[in-house]
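Backbone-to-sequence.
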């Protein structure tokens, strides 16, 4: 035994280059959230396809939650502890959620199903400068899990975090066009604080320190607007 941490050993694994294949997303047949959680925890699709070195899906959720948060992918800390947004970016996200109106981190995690566009750690970038962004094949293979959560959980409020989640849920919109606004599932802007639509999406930028999107003061003001919109919709989710 070398004594290295699990994250260090994982970082030393060779990066698996995404295949040129684009596998069709397998259907997810779960008929309940309990079945979905069990099947998702056991998923090895991307590892079996040679797209990632190790499969360990990271997400948290339970029946009855009315809010769904979707990030990009777990990082090495999340991989080790199998808890979404457990690292530095997660601490910043929690600060945002408190600004939006959640009482505490515990309140946030109790009320929100937290997942990501791809739910296994994709590995580091080949140059070592941060985590690799999941490729289209990984997004396709993981799509059925997110689709099943949307179907079975039926959240009223969805929070796409970062550009990858935004493209997955509101394709065609950029962060600059989306942050600070709310949309229905078809991408139509929602201005009402008491919407009549079934589901509202409030996009956020990614809280990662690697992202430079928030370096612009005007974009930070958009984040302020987004958190205000989010806070104004929390009570609506349970009406």
């Amino acid at each position: 035994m070398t004594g290295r941490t699990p994250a260090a050993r994982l970082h030393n694994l060779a990066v698996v280059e995404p295949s040129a294949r684009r596998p069709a997303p397998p259907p997810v047949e779960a008929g309940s959230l309990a079945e979905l959680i069990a099947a998702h925890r056991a998923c090895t699709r991307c590892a079996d396809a040679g797209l990632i070195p190790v499969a360990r899906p990271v997400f948290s959720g339970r029946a009855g939650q009315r809010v769904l948060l979707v990030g990009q992918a777990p990082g090495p800390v999340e991989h080790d502890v199998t808890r979404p947004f457990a690292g530095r970016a997660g601490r910043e996200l929690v600060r945002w959620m408190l600004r939006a109106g959640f009482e505490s981190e515990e309140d946030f995690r109790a009320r929100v199903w937290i997942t990501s566009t791809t739910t296994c750690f994709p590995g580091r970038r080949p140059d070592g400068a941060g985590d690799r962004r999941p490729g289209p094949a990984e997004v396709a293979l993981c799509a059925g899990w997110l689709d099943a959560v949307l179907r079975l959980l039926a959240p009223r409020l969805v929070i796409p975090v970062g550009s990858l989640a935004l493209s997955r849920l509101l394709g065609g919109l950029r962060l600059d066009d989306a942050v600070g606004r709310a949309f229905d599932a078809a991408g139509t802007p929602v201005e009402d604080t008491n919407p009549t639509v079934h589901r509202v999406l409030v996009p956020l930028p990614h809280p990662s320190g690697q992202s430079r999107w928030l370096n612009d003061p005007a974009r930070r003001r958009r984040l302020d607007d987004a958190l205000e919109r989010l806070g104004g919709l929390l009570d609506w989710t349970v009406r």
